Amino acid sequence: MIIGIICSAVAGAFISVQAAVNAKMNVHLGAWATTVLVFVVGLLGSLIPLALFGGNIRGVFDISPIYALGGLLGVGVVFCVMRSIQLLGPTLSVSVILVSQLVWALGVDLFGAFGMPQLALSPGQVIGLMILLLGVVIFKQSQAVALQHESMKEAA
User: Fold this and answer.
1) Confidence tier at 130 by pLDDT (50, 70, 90)
2) DSSP letter string over the chain?
3) Are 116 and 108 in contact (CB under 8 A)?
4) How many Cα atoms are found within 13 Å in the side-chain-facing hemisphere of 114?
5) Do 39 and 75 form a contact (C-beta atoms < 8 A)?
6) Choice between 98 and 152, residue whose per-residue pLDDT is larger
7) What is the pTM of this model?
8) Residues 96/83, Cβ–Cβ less than 8 Å
9) Residue range 101-129: average pLDDT?
10) Contact 89/150 with Cβ under 8 angstroms?
């Protein structure tokens, strides 16, 4: 379990850093060029561990084509994260993304989507989601207040 928690924490860090880097690249390259570059570099970066540790790359022909949509979803992720950071800033974007991820993950658990085990939704999960949503609202409000104070300082 501890390895799963560590991997989740590292993934969260990577996602946040990647989002900021991609948003900056987007300013210079544009959204689609940035997305292509991210996936080309990702492909090259994935080939190294594949060569070192192996894998069943031929098994790609044995899986349902629906799972190939993961790559297309990845394009949507990179594009939407870049755009949301441009429009909302990094911290608010990541906050909304986290809530969305949790809602969708709960849906996957609840319905057993994509062959995942079906899990019941508990009252604690619903309460936790509501607290997280409230946290994003409070975060957004406090961010707006901080921006107002900053604007007032600059005007003075």
Assistant:
1) very high
2) -HHHHHHHHHHHHHHHHHHHHHHHHHHHH-HHHHHHHHHHHHHHHHHHHHHHH---GGGGGGS-GGGGHHHHHHHHHHHHHHHHHHHH-HHHHHHHHHHHHHHHHHHHHHHTGGGPPP-PPPHHHHHHHHHHHHHHHHHHHHHHHHHHHHHHHHH-
3) yes
4) 12
5) yes
6) 98
7) 0.75
8) no
9) 92
10) no
Q: What six digits make up the tokens of 102?
A: 């949790």
The total of other beta-carbon atoms located within 10 Å of residue 155's CB is 6
Closest C-alpha among 47, 48, 49, 42 to residue 21: 42
* Mean pLDDT rounded to a whole number for the chain: 89
pLDDT at 67: 82
Closest CA to 82 of 136, 40, 29, 24: 24
CA 59: distance to chain centroid?
27
